[in-house]
Structure formats: C-alpha cells, structure tokens
Amino acid sequence: MPNFPNLRSAHQPMPEHAMPIPDVGVVPRTRLAGARVLVVGDVMLDRYWFGDVNRISPEAPVPVVHVQKQEDRLGGAANVARNAVALGAQTGLLCVVGHDEPGERVVQLLQDSGVAAHLERDPTLLTTIKLRVLSRQQQLLRVDFENTPAHEILLAGLARFDELLPSHDVILMSDYAKGGLTHVTQMIAHAHAAGKPVLVDPKGDDWERYRGATLITPNRAELREVVGQWKSEEDLHARVAALRASLDFKALLLTRSEEGMTLFTDAGALHASAVAREVYDVSGAGDTVIATLAVMLGAGLSLVEAVGLANRAAGIVVGKLGTATVNYDELFQ
Asked: Could you tell me one molecular function GO term of this UniProt entry (predicted)?
C-alpha cells in the first residue's frame, strides 16, 4: 500500500533521472465500462466503531469510548474491487471467506457494491476483521481477527482462477499476507501464458513469488525491505533495474508519499508529483492506486497514462475517512 503522510503535501521537486508524467484528459465512461478486471487476493471486513471519549477508565489509564455508531466496509482485495467498480469497470473478485457472520457481511456488501463475487467458502476460516475504534475522526485502537485458509480451499481457488481468466482483460493481485495468494506464482504464470497483464500489490520480502508480473506497486518501505536502503536517486534506479531484471518485472511503480510516484520501465523513469491536498486518512490509498491502474489498462490506456490518473485518484482518496473509493466524476471533474 502506498504510504502518504498525515500532513499537507506540496508539489515536491522531481527526483533526478526521471521525466515528468504528462497530464491525462477525460476518458469517456463508455471506454471504462468496457474494462474487465479480475481482482484476486485477501479479503477482509473493515469494521468501524464511532463514539465519544469523555472520561478515563478507573480500571486502567485508557480512554472509555461510548460507541454510538457502527459501520462495515469492504477491505483488502474487496476494497480494490469496489474501487474498480466505482470507476465503471466490470469487476470480478476471487477470494476466500469463512462461514461466519463477518463472511456473510462481506457477501452482502459485495452484492450491494456491484462486484461479481467468485467466493470460496472455508468453514474453518475466521473471516479477517480489522476493527477500528474512533472518536472525533481520530483512530484510537485497531483490533485484528484472522487466520489462514485451508489448503484444499486454496487449490479450488486456483482452479476457479483458470476458469475466470479468459473472460477478463487485466488481472490484479492484492496481497495482504493472509494466505489467499498462496498460489500466486502459478496464477501469474497462467495469466502470462494467456497474454493477460498482471498487476501486483506486494507484501513481505519474498518477491520471487511474483516473478513475471507485468507491474508491481510497492511503497518506499516495502521496496526498501527487498532491495535495501538506497543512498541516492542513481542508486535507487540501479537497485530497481537489478530487481526488475532478476524477477522479470516489466515495470515497477514506486509510491513515494509526499514525493508522488515514480514509474520504472525499460524506457527509463517517469515521475508524477504528489497532488497538493490535506491528507485525512491513508487507509486503502494503495487499493485505489492499483485499482485505477487496472481499470485504465483494461480500457486500453497506456501505462504512463494510467499512472497519471492513479496519482490523481490517490490525491482524492486520502481526503476521505477510512477505506473509500474514487468515482468517475471525482476523477475527471
């Protein structure tokens, strides 16, 4: 997920050795409606409890939250799919959820959002929940509930992936390290054989599993975990070039917080400056970036054009609370 700071970010100087990404005009709705995106990955339920804090607990030095409102939103790969739908694309989602209350809630929210859900149900799985407690729009606490899917369910998901592959234009892998992408290497190979571009939002330091991906979208911390700390822009470019060559990545999009994002390809590096705006909440910003990229590529735009629009979408979504989407009118207003 891209990392955006909780501050007002002004346009930053463009990094050395990078050319600017040109601005993109309006893309017709009908063109985006023709994009067919398949999202595969880890799904979770983002559960929000909103309340007031007026006292400290007598049991421990912690605030007491009087919860007055609850809200559920799709998280993880489901939020990526929801973002793609918000832009007007035909969007499928392949994932695993449990036979439990949060799993049923995910199913309901997917139906409401217009995502074509292709779900594998695992009776032993606790559907991942990220419970956030907020007061006056500030997050006080997050509590996670999760475990990993069964091997048999994941194999069934791989078979379903092969069935869905021909009917989609772009494949998007949303990895949150919850086990849903155990067979990601095989999925990328199958997509590559079918001539489908594969976009990956990575997790962890084992990127060998993403070998052959068309585009990978790390933030600075995620890239640093894999290639080490770079000492200069020239050093960064050299490390990214070596990484791309060793793992056969066609392109790498580095999201750089207040510095915007830089696209690395065989043609060189292109940079999009951060959009100046008050940053309110970074939750799910990476979901919006990669979903926008997938939709635009599925609509036939170039990778450079897609990155320009993804950068614009990121600047919009960080001004919203929690996991949120950017719709067509917001992106092209």
From this structure: heptose 7-phosphate kinase activity
